[in-house]
């Protein structure tokens, strides 16, 4: 079972069945879907299916998967730390960080704060050799988060969207080094 993680402001907890409505509210926002290849807002049945898939990943890889993010009991989005998806550039053992937050929570450093907790967890607890993140080239906010975390560009590649378009993107990576356990900030920047 994956641990609940605590940051200065966030509680990152495992996904629960009741999260389907929260995920629907998140993905209802066009701004949220813009760079995640999700043209349409999902309906409740689709969100329930997403929760079921997240929970299946949790069962298959108990220490990894998706974390729902809350501030004082209010849902603000989610993070993941899991193996990269099939077809993405990756090396054996890679763990990929991802995040999606409610627009009301943007611009406060929360994606960076939650990701740092997952970086630390991935390196220190799971001893992952490498943590990666993927972002479309046009997703300036996500690229900025990746930069603040200290991940470096590893591979440029083209993502083929559900609608068949080709989207330029990159995989960014951070390698665990011997002294990672002593880094208080969860950053991979030297
Ligand atoms: C990407 C996302 C998670 C960032 O969340 P966040 O909590 O606002 O991120 P942070 O506050 O930690 O950092 C965002 C940084 O990007 C900057 N930024 C945001 N929008 C920007 C823009 N359009 N142009 C340039 N910089 C931008 C912010 O100023 C901040 O940098 P700073 O700390 O130097 O000022 C959020 O925008 C989101 O959920 N987007 C929709 C889903 C998504 O795209 N997920 C990522 C898929 S790869």
Short description:
Helices cover 29% and strands 29% of the residues. With 190 residues, it is an alpha+beta fold. It has one domain (5-182): Gcn5-related N-acetyltransferase (GNAT) (Aminopeptidase, 3-Layer(aba) Sandwich), CATH 3.40.630.30.
Share of helix among residues?
25-40%
What is the gyration radius calculated from CA atoms?
16 Å
Structural class: alpha+beta
> Which descriptor suits the 3D outline?
globular
Model description:
The protein has 190 residues and is of the alpha+beta class. The protein has a single domain (5-182), classed as Gcn5-related N-acetyltransferase (GNAT) (Aminopeptidase, 3-Layer(aba) Sandwich). It contains 5 helices and 8 strands, in the order ββαααβββαβαββ. It has helices spanning 20-27, 30-33, 44-60, 110-125, 140-149, and strands at 5-6, 11-14, 65-71, 74-82, 95-101, 130-136, 152-160, 166-175. An 8-stranded mixed beta sheet has the order 1-2-3-4-5-6-8-7, sandwiched between helices. A hairpin with a 4-residue loop joins β1 (5-6) and β2. Residues 181-185 have low confidence and may be disordered. The structure holds coenzyme A. Residues 32, 35-36, 99-101, 106-112, 135, 139-142, 144-145 line the site of coenzyme A. Coenzyme A binds at residues 32, 35-36, 99-101, 106-112, 135, 139-142, 144-145.
List keywords for this structure.
190 residues, alpha+beta, Aminopeptidase, eight-stranded mixed β-sheet, 5 helices, globular
SSE map:
Layout: E1 5-6, E2 11-14, H1 20-27, H2 30-33, H3 44-60, E3 65-71, E4 74-82, E5 95-101, H4 110-125, E6 130-136, H5 140-149, E7 152-160, E8 166-175
Parallel strand pairs: 5-6
Antiparallel strand pairs: 1-2, 2-3, 3-4, 4-5, 6-8, 7-8
């Amino acid at each position: 079972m994956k641990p609940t993680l605590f940051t200065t402001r966030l509680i990152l907890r495992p996904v629960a069945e009741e999260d389907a409505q929260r995920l629907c509210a998140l993905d209802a926002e066009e701004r949220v879907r813009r760079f995640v290849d999700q043209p349409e807002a999902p309906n409740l049945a689709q969100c329930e299916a997403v929760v079921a898939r997240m929970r299946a990943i949790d069962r298959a890889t108990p220490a990894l998967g998706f974390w729902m993010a809350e501030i004082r009991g209010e849902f603000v989005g989610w993070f993941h730390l899991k193996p990269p998806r099939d077809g993405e550039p990756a090396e054996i053992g890679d763990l990929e960080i991802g995040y999606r937050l409610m627009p009301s929570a943007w611009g406060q450093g929360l994606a960076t704060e939650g990701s740092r907790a997952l970086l630390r967890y991935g390196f220190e607890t799971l001893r992952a050799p490498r943590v990666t993140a993927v972002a479309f080239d046009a997703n300036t906010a996500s690229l900025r988060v990746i930069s603040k975390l200290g991940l470096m560009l590893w591979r440029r590649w083209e993502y083929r969207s559900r609608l068949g378009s080709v989207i330029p993107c990159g995989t960014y990576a951070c390698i665990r080094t011997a002294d990672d356990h002593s880094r208080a900030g969860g950053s991979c920047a030297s």
